[in-house]
């Protein structure tokens, strides 16, 4: 599990966390308004990713189940069809409605709308990369997606200062640098996918991919929506609190990606009928370890982004109560998803949010932003209690445990 999860963690850290942190680090010199705009912009991008997540998740699980047993071509073709549909359905309205969307979350919507114009317009590139990586992960190959993420991250490091300051584009430069870096990385990834020479086949429908991936997408989308709602609540306490929340979230994501790496590793192994032992205990232990590290590093790391890190440090301190149950919940999610019990996980997540959001509004009126942080801990604890964690280590359904057929020369390598 750890060997499989480590490349995934590096991939997530560089492709999801580091890019956002680099953008924040560079735009921090432009003021709190720019920090808040990038915070809202990247949160919206996570929401848009959640709308598409069912596709790469379904691809990973179905490729894992079919590898060595059935043709992979139908899965990949269906993935690209869904990519085209979702790209148009999400990116076009996002760009056209960028100004009213930005006005929902900030008192200065112009900066955020400028960021949306490029970041939401570049979503098809982001979506395409997840399709390619979903295929590779289904084959048990987590190292190539990691390399793709590192390449993208290096390009963002080089391009951000050039576009933000060199070309004088400000926060739009940060968004454009990210889209260009992702486009170059996608070209490299597509070359590798073409070389796999996946054999053709038939018999798969778009419904099968969507049904397989929907619980994970629903879980992610619910978290993104709640995240946007929390931004709105925190915004009521001023721009400084939004900036502190944004900085704290970016720092915390570096630790949270440990949980998501464990979830993907558990999902891949379960789909491929490989052993998964105790993801719950591993997730709870990881949550405690991440909370400890964040408490130790909160002040110095937050100080890298702002001269007054008090709001971000306070957020990270309170997140100790949230990270332990959240780590356990996310880690067991991979097994539940790949073994056909993802709907139960989604139900547990929604149950936690049904308590968290009203509690956030109620406690924030009494305790200020601290009440928001306490509501997050309560929601995660309720979700973990409601999840079928005791059976999370159960084997995959019988139809998924059939022995794999012998490979032919035309079959793609498993990557294991």
Automatic annotation (TrEMBL):
Per UniProt, what is one GO molecular function of this protein? antiporter activity
Region of interest called Disordered, as start-end residue ranges on this chain: 393-416
A Pfam match:
MatE
Q: Does the keyword Transport apply?
A: yes
The alphabetical list of record keywords is:
Membrane, Transmembrane, Transmembrane helix, Transport
Q: Domain of life here?
A: Bacteria
Q: Where are the transmembrane segments?
A: 12-40, 46-63, 75-96, 116-136, 148-168, 174-194, 220-239, 251-268, 280-303, 315-336, 345-364, 370-389
Q: What does this protein do?
A: Multidrug efflux pump.
The family this protein is said to belong to:
Belongs to the multi antimicrobial extrusion (MATE) (TC 2.A.66.1) family.
Q: What is this protein called?
A: Probable multidrug resistance protein NorM
